[in-house]
Write a structure and sequence with these properties.
Layout (H helix, E strand, L loop, with lengths): L1 H8 L4 H21 L4 H20 L1
Helix pairs in contact: 2-3
């Protein structure tokens, strides 16, 4: 995966990439259990957006 290669080249981004993947997985699981428009799903989605924006700014 491209992120794996880049994370090795830039170790400071590795933790951020892990947080993004964990948050993405949590959002999917929550959406399946509670629905795509549930409060919890939307809050997790917002958290994921923040992490992705941080990655875009720092990358």
């Amino acid at each position: 995966m491209l992120f794996d290669i880049q994370a090795k080249a830039y170790p400071e981004h590795k933790l951020l990439l892990i947080k993004i993947e964990d948050t993405r997985q949590l959002m999917i699981e929550t959406a399946i259990k509670e629905g795509y428009t549930s409060f919890n799903t939307l809050k997790i989605s917002q958290r994921l957006d923040l992490l992705l924006n941080k990655l875009a700014v720092t990358w």
